[in-house]
């Protein structure tokens, strides 16, 4: 994006470069957002060397996104819009820094004003009040001058005046663009014939299903055919899915039928009220889609959806039993009521109807057994049942049939209800319409996402567009009549099986059904209702999933399990109209419960040598300060969890050794009024209860949260609560990062207790009160003690009078420089793997293995001596001394796991190269790519390398005095294996034969004989092998032949090992 610069602005470009903030130079102008961002960062780094403004990236990206949006929609005066966005960005940053760093806020305001002047061509203002204030605190007058001076107000008025009209035009333009059919462009020559055949086959399912669902909705059968004429066409033109087919659904039909069946009116009036229900559903959908309410489906969980679908399938099946058995009883949406009516009228069962039902089920399931698609089964059932009806005359045997179906398509709007009818029933239809719309949309959007996931599509599924398309489709039922229509799982699956790949199938299907209405309605006279019921039962059986609650129970998801059981029982025993809203309410209550009760508050500790803070339980050695507790609140602070937040913070403040609680607010994305009041009350309670001796510090607040807290005067409460600690220059109401807050807390507490001041450097003392103790923690504490809030070793230990960092402890303990992560004892399994090689070296030297002199120059905890003595090697030298300067002892073989920091590996390579004796290193996989290793093996007598790699990765043990807890003592950071060289004592072939019987290891003479997981990622051979594997996989996927991949693996010996290695690492 470019910014227009006038000649005057070019002449005055250097005006913005004051006070070290080199935004632009006289010859270098800002021409894009990247340069703008870099200039702003340079300006901020002038006074804040180690930090960058919070959320700066967010505002930069948001500005770029909105500018791209304006360019796509051809907005005029883009420069003004860009300037306004950048100005808003700087204002938000200014608000954030006003309380954190007043001098930074002044600098930001100057940058904002100068940049506006630069872009708009305004000369440098002569008013001295517009210059940067010399003091650190900017005055109200100078701030107002900076905000208003030098700005062309006409531009802003013109922007505001035209912005609203342009926004409306752009909104409609985008709306109409989104309404373009998802399946366009379409290859008519290639796909049209296949789509027509698929539509004809699909019609054989839709026609009997529409007739059956019309009876489920308590309507005459012909209304089912009317209903599938126009809505599928409209959805095909407006829907976001190119595969989902609109058709009748069990849940909306059952809801409509439950209401209409109880009304003492004629079938024609019931059909009119069904049209009215469809219009109400359509209007509700249109309203939700226009208001962008598609996000509401995110609050409905999968257990709820599964329970709804399963329970509704059970209700539908129970309602169809009377048709399958030929019993003439009143329909009911309650399972217990339907079953009771059937069992009390078992003597009315029609044996001929039962036989017809059994034949229909037999045909459907037999064709499934032979893996024939559902359209053929439905068509075969339809043809056989109708043919048998004309042969034996069903009506003479008491078998209920569809009967006469009026021929032709009704005149548009002729079935619309009269004014008196809809006025009398409008209010009573509202609950039915709301329940049908909610239930239908949930199933429809779930189906659309499932189809998109399995088969893909040109556009992603849009919930808002689904609202609009289904709303228009259902509103169109006023033309020919019908009941609410949604995305149908049965019709969609059948369309895909028949070869339909776009919405053209649905359009042609509507045409076919219209032709059937015009010419072939008399054919369905002898169609039995039992056959229709059988098709309905088979269609809804796919919705039954009784394994879902068992799976939830096995996964210990007891809340979801209870939601599933409760929803199922509500639908089955109380009815759909009551159950659906109740189940949705239960889900929302569960969401609020989980948000309020399961919010995680973790205690943080500092990684030694850095200013990074991580959860205590995830690192093995962290710097913890008993008097300062750092807590990370990982959720928005709102009314649902505000009480829990307050209680947990008070629990931490009440601990005896705690003086300051630092709250990391980086994860608090928003805060509501209840959260603000709770935070203010918490500050006041801590201040009054402990009389100012303890206080709370907030760090890493987002800009929106910081502005809300500032508007609510939380900063003033924080200032008042910490009055006795504000002598430090580091005090801020809101700290930009956690480390700054901890520094201030340490300095404030040490000053208040009379201890010496800490230096102003950015380092903190690392206190390990109990971590340095060599006593093991008691694992038999009772459960109540283990459930104390964020309890660990440091929180229960008394603060020592003198503290030492890990580096200081290591400097005293070891004569050469090391880091804490260097100290990890090798497992005994690693020494057992190279025992045959040590025995080989002893035999070659003519010694017994207990006489073999083994030298390990790096001391950690002395465990190497015990591990080798257990294998029979008694002469092991491993002492805490600097072998770089001291004289090394006489040895036969060097065996070590060296530290990886600094230049230790390189110095060790030089040492063994000079000695010329056999050596065994346990080092990471990347060592073979280092220059010092290549120089070592190029020396005389060092070329015979041998490698022993474990099939299961080594796990190293942290020494006791460096552990943060006993449970965090193990680590396995990267693949490591033995680098071995026998020098002139033994060859690689002899070592390979000695390792022939060793299990659990890979013994090779070249690193590239190992699996790919042992390679270094920068190794060219690694990249070559990976490319070969990827191309082979693509080739196998394209050809559908997996045998070639396995044969390739046997030839090279890497592909199979790579897969096995991945499996082992997953087990670890």
TrEMBL record:
Region (Disordered) residue spans: 772-804, 1030-1068
Location of the protein in the cell: Membrane
Tagged with keyword Membrane: yes
Signal peptide residue numbers: none
Gene Ontology terms: cellular component: membrane
Low complexity bias spans: 794-804
Keywords carried by this UniProt record: Membrane, Transmembrane, Transmembrane helix
Domain STAS: 618-745
GO molecular function: methyltransferase activity; nucleic acid binding
Bilayer topology annotation: Multi-pass membrane protein
Bias type Basic residues, positions: 776-787
Keyword Repeat (UniProt): no
Residues annotated as transmembrane: 192-212, 218-238, 243-261, 273-295, 307-329, 349-369, 376-394, 506-527, 562-593, 621-639
GO BP, sorted A to Z: methylation; transmembrane transport
Highest taxon listed in the record's lineage: Eukaryota
Coiled coil ranges: none
Matches recorded under SUPFAM superfamilies: SpoIIaa-like
UniProt protein name: STAS domain-containing protein
Lineage summary: Eukaryota, Sar, Alveolata, Perkinsozoa, Perkinsea
């Amino acid at each position: 994006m470019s910014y227009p610069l006038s000649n005057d602005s070019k002449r005055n470009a250097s005006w913005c470069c004051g006070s070290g903030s080199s935004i632009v130079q006289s010859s270098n102008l800002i021409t894009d957002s990247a340069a703008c961002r870099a200039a702003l960062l340079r300006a901020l780094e002038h006074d804040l060397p180690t930090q960058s403004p919070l959320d700066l990236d967010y505002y930069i990206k948001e500005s770029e996104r909105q500018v791209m949006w304006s360019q796509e929609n051809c907005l005029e005066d883009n420069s003004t819009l860009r300037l306004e966005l950048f100005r808003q960005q700087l204002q938000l940053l200014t608000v954030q820094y006003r309380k954190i760093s007043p001098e930074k806020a002044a600098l930001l305001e100057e940058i904002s004003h100068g940049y506006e002047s630069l872009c708009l061509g305004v000369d440098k203002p002569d008013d001295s009040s517009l210059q940067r204030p010399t003091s650190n605190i900017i005055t109200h007058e100078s701030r107002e001058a900076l905000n208003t001076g030098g700005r062309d107000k006409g531009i802003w008025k013109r922007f505001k005046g035209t912005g609203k009209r342009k926004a409306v035009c752009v909104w409609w333009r985008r709306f109409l663009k989104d309404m373009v059919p998802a399946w366009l462009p379409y290859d008519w020559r290639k796909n049209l014939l296949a789509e027509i055949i698929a539509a004809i086959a699909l019609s054989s399912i839709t026609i009997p299903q529409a007739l059956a669902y019309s009876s489920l909705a308590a309507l005459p059968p012909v209304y089912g055919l009317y209903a599938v004429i126009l809505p599928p066409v409209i959805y095909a033109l407006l829907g976001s899915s190119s595969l989902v087919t609109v058709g009748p659904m069990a849940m909306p039909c059952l809801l409509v039928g439950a209401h209409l069946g109880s009304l003492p009116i004629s079938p024609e009036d019931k059909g009119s009220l069904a049209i009215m229900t469809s219009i109400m559903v359509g209007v509700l959908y249109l309203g939700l889609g226009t208001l962008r309410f598609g996000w509401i489906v995110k609050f409905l969980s999968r257990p709820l959806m599964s329970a709804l679908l399963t329970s509704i399938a059970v209700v539908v099946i129970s309602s169809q039993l009377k048709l399958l058995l030929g019993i003439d009883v009143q329909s009911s949406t309650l399972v217990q009521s339907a079953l009771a009516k059937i069992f009390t009228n078992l003597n009315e069962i029609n044996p001929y109807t039962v036989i017809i039902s059994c034949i229909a089920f037999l045909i459907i399931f037999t064709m499934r057994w032979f893996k024939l698609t559902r359209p053929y089964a439905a068509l075969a059932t339809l043809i056989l049942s109708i043919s048998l009806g004309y042969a034996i005359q069903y009506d003479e045997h008491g078998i209920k049939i569809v009967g006469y179906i009026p021929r032709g398509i009704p005149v548009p709007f002729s079935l619309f209800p009269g004014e008196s009818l809809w006025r009398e029933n409008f209010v009573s239809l509202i609950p039915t319409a709301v329940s049908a719309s909610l239930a239908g949309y949930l199933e429809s959007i779930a189906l659309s996402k499932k189809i998109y996931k399995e088969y893909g599509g040109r556009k992603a599924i849009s919930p808002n567009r689904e609202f609009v398309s289904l709303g228009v489709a259902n509103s169109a039922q006023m033309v020919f009549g019908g009941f609410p229509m949604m995305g149908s799982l049965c019709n969609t699956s059948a369309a895909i099986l028949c070869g339909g790949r776009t919405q053209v199938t649905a359009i042609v299907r509507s045409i076919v059904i219209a032709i059937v209405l015009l010419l072939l309605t008399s054919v369905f006279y002898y169609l039995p209702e039992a056959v229709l019921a059988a098709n309905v039962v088979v269609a809804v059986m796919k919705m039954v999933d009784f394994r879902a609650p068992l799976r939830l129970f096995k996964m210990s998801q007891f809340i979801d399990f209870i939601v599933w059981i409760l929803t199922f029982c509500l639908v089955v025993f109380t009815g759909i109209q009551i159950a659906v809203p109740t189940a949705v309410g239960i889900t929302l209550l569960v969401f609020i419960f989980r948000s309020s009760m399961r919010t995680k508050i973790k205690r943080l500790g500092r990684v030694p040598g850095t200013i990074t803070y991580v959860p205590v339980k995830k690192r093995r050695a962290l710097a913890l300060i008993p008097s300062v507790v750092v807590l990370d609140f990982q959720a928005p602070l709102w009314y649902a969890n505000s009480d829990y937040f307050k209680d947990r913070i008070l629990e931490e403040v009440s601990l005896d050794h705690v003086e300051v609680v630092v709250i990391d607010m980086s994860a608090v994305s928003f805060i509501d009024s209840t959260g603000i009041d709770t935070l203010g009350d918490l500050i006041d309670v801590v201040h009054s209860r402990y009389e100012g001796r303890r206080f709370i510090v907030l760090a890493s607040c987002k800009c929106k949260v910081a502005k809300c807290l500032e508007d609510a005067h939380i900063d003033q409460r924080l200032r008042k609560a910490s009055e006795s600690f504000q002598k430090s220059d580091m005090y801020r109401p809101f700290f930009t990062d956690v480390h700054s807050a901890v520094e201030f807390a340490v300095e404030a507490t040490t000053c208040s207790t009379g201890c010496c001041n800490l230096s102003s450097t950015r380092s903190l003392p690392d206190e390990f009160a109990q971590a340095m103790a060599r006593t093991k923690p008691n694992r038999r504490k009772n459960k109540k003690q283990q459930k104390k809030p964020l309890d660990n070793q440091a929180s229960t230990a008394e603060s020592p009078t003198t503290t030492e960092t890990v580096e200081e402890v290591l400097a005293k303990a070891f004569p050469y420089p090391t880091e804490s992560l260097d100290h990890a004892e090798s497992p005994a399994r690693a020494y057992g793997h190279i025992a045959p090689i040590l025995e080989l070296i002893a035999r070659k030297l003519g010694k017994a293995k207990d006489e073999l002199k083994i030298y390990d120059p790096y001391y950690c905890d002395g465990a190497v001596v015990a591990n080798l003595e257990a294998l029979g090697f008694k002469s092991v030298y491993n002492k805490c001394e600097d072998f770089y300067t001291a004289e090394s002892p006489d040895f036969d073989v060097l065996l070590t796991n060296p530290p990886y920091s600094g230049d230790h590996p390189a110095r060790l390579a030089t040492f063994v190269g000079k000695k010329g004796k056999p050596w065994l290193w346990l080092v990471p996989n990347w060592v073979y790519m280092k220059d010092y290793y290549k120089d070592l093996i190029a020396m005389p007598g060092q070329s015979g390398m041998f490698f022993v790699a474990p099939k299961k990765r080594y796990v190293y043990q942290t020494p006791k005095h460096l552990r943060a807890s006993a449970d965090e003592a193990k680590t396995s950071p990267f693949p490591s294996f033995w680098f071995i060289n026998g020098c002139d004592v033994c060859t690689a072939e002899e070592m390979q034969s000695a390792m022939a019987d060793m299990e659990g290891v890979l013994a090779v003479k070249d690193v590239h004989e190992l699996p790919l997981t042992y390679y270094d990622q920068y190794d060219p051979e690694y990249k070559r092998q990976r490319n070969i594997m990827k191309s082979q996989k693509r080739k196998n996927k394209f050809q559908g032949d997996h045998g070639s991949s396995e044969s390739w693996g046997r030839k090279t010996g890497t592909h199979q090992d790579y897969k096995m290695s991945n499996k082992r690492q997953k087990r670890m």
